[in-house]
Design goal:
Structural class of chain B: alpha+beta
Number of helices of chain B: 2
Number of strands of chain A: 2
Radius of gyration of chain B: 24 Å
Bound molecules: protoporphyrin IX containing FE, copper (II) ion
Structural class of chain A: mainly alpha
Strand content of chain A: under 5%
Helix content of chain B: 10-25%
Number of helices of chain A: 15
Strand content of chain B: 35-45%
Order of helices and strands of chain B: HEHEEEEEEEEEEE
Strand order of the largest sheet of chain A: 1-2
Distance between the termini of chain A: 66 Å
Largest interface: A-B, 107 and 90 residues
Shape of chain A: globular
CATH architecture of the largest domain in chain B: Sandwich
Largest sheet of chain A: 2 strands, antiparallel
CATH topology of the largest domain in chain B: Immunoglobulin-like
Radius of gyration of chain A: 23 Å
Order of helices and strands of chain A: EEHHHHHHHHHHHHHHH
CATH superfamily of the largest domain in chain B: Cupredoxins -  blue copper proteins
Distance between the termini of chain B: 74 Å
Oligomer: heterodimer
Strand order of the largest sheet of chain B: 2-3-6-12-11-8-9
Number of domains of chain B: 2
Shape of chain B: elongated
Amino acid sequence: MATQAQFRICPDTGLKVHLPAQALIKANAVAAVVFLAIGGLFGLSVALTRWPAVHLLPAEWFYLALTAHGADVLLFWIIFFEMAVLYFASAILLGSRLAAPKMGWLAFILMLVGAVTANIAVLQGESSVMFTSYVPMKAAPHFYLGLILFAVGALIGVFVFFGTLIVAKDERTYEGSIPLVTFGALTAAIIAVFTIACGAIILVPTFLWSIGIISHIDPLTYKVVWWGMGHSSQQINVSAHVAVWYAIAAIVLGAKPLSEKVSRTAFFFYILFLQLASAHHLLVEPGISSEWKIFNTSYAMYLAVLGSMIHGLTVPGSIEAAQRRKGYTNGIFEWLRKAPWGNPAFAGMFLSLVMFGFLGGITGVILGTEQLNMLMHNTLYVPGHFHGTVVAGTTLAFMAMTYLVVPLIFRRELVLPRLAQWQPYLFGIGAAGISLFMMGAGTLGVARRHWDITFTDARLSFDVPAGAFLMMGLNGICAILAALGGLAYVVVVVGSILFGKRKDAPAPAARPATPPMASPIASYGGEGTLKLPGTMVLVSVFFVAFVLYYYVNWKYLASVWPLR
Amino acid sequence: MAIHPPKQMIWWHEPVERSELVWIAVAFLWGLVMFGTMVAWHFVGKQNLSNEAYRITPDVFQARTEAAAEKYKVREEGNTGIPVVRPPPGGDAYMLARLWEWWPILELEKGQSYRLHISSLDWQHGFSLQPTNVNLQIHPGYEMVLTVTPDAAGQFTVVCNEFCGIGHHTMIGRIYVVDKK
Ligand code: HEM
Ligand SMILES: [Cu+2]
Ligand SMILES: [Cu+2]
């Protein structure tokens, strides 16, 4: 049973903070940042290698670095951070004690051991199989083992989250329903269970196969189940970063969801539909029927896309409503112009919202369309798309959240507030650039995961279009920007945690970079704001871009070889 | 706020903004349009995968590809020793993927249809036809069959775009499309 001594009251927010939960949040956040730093370095080296004029790494190192990059950022950075988000959204937001902190530590240690083991396996050089590790390509057994340990740890963490929700309910630490942000985290956690189950179903046999106990794994079956994990985990990311958007809008601006009903239903759509859309990774595989592809990519995917499009309105809408109530009512966009762009939490959040929609979202739907997929499957368009989702979207949102976590949980003020202010822009522009230019190169046919687009060592020759070289160069430049932005983030966060001014002393006037908690403005978000013209303009622009780009791709498809 | 429990205990009863309803309707209809486009393309479009495929062992596929290559070989490519194979228009064309080549080179006639059989003898490979940009995933143990109708003459390259080990970036093949003689 928790004693009062295990809690503190946050002087900024009035939240009741369970100290063991706080310690776990810190540990997971720190691990996340470390893996982001390592993975980001690998990413930079990969991008510089793909810049033909630089061609940094030799081939073996390139494939090794690419494997490490995918695993470190997509799995370890994001999932460690999500653990911190889960603990925050349960124990802290509900003012409850964390269920079973010891299990939380067990989860953390398993994840850490798993992540380190997988990294060692990759660095030893026998496991350059990419993080997707498609069979029959084989990695060293401890590569799979590391991933399995990591997944088991994550699963335990998810159950600690569920346990905490139950504890909070039993001990009546809150009244009524859980907050929207917690609801979003719950969505993520439910999808995580499904995801990790798929991961276990496929990685455990693959591990046994790698040590010789099982003789054969069907490559197509592997992919179907692997993407049950691989795609659903992107759904976790979306749920988590949308929850983070809502949290930041609430903490910084006091924004309330326009209507709880709509926002929650939109989260619910993610649970119902998107895990099915792992099908869109199998659109050009042999022997899968068109009916199955269409069913899984349209019914299942478009309803989940609908969920995201709803958040795409309600998040900026809630911000507009909050700003208008504060008196920024001139014209269509005063609310946006006068938003706190100098606050890195807000700036990162809003950039993440816009770029996730325009760069990641639209292109994801295109890639997930049965016939259109043929145009860009496995070209650089694919990494271009998901650097729009997980980098410009999720990663930037999580970075923005960190600027609130440091003062609220670590109780430190940010060091180098100027650098912090610029960081979201630097990283955001870099991430948008790598996303766009990789998509550009992919449209020109450049392959992903490919060391040499000049084909110097090949028996036959092939000249890629000159434009592709330009794209890869611009990609390299933007990779440097993104890496600098990532470095700035690591410096500010680590610096603040180690050297930031402690906030426990009676707080002096808050500095701009450490926002005070805004107070709520109305009883529900849409109250008294009949119109949201700015948001309607934004979503209309989005919609037009979406429709145009969608049909441009059909036109492009119509120009390739007829085939059945 | 989004970080506090909703004011109304039963949030289902909160009012919904009109702008939200409009947007939900638009987004939903757009989903239906996209769904319809995908289905319609099966009737009006010329680029639809038939999804015809068979299970096959690598040995059998290799034997068939070699037999076809022997029968329809017209020349060798430069001094590479790779046969250039010209299957009969309307007939079957075979191409195999293995570490790290697409074999053999095919020569097709513009405007003619061919049943193109592709499979892998070892790992997964990515069939990426350039510069026309058609991309297919090739698995070992599965023979993919598609009917293609090249509509422009010229030299086309097959790049491998599924990572297949250290020689991945050297794996290219070729298809010539020629005008009818
Ligand atoms: C400094 C920032 C980053 C740079 C410069 C960068 C650059 C790149 C490049 C050039 C590729 C290789 C594309 C290819 O050759 O196929 C790549 C792949 C990838 N990146 Fe990043 N990236 C960055 C950050 C991130 C982050 C934060 C994430 C995830 C949250 C991420 C996830 C991935 C994944 C999953 C792949 C695919 C790996 C594979 O094909 O197996 N990247 N990145
Ligand atoms: Cu290959
Ligand atoms: Cu390859």
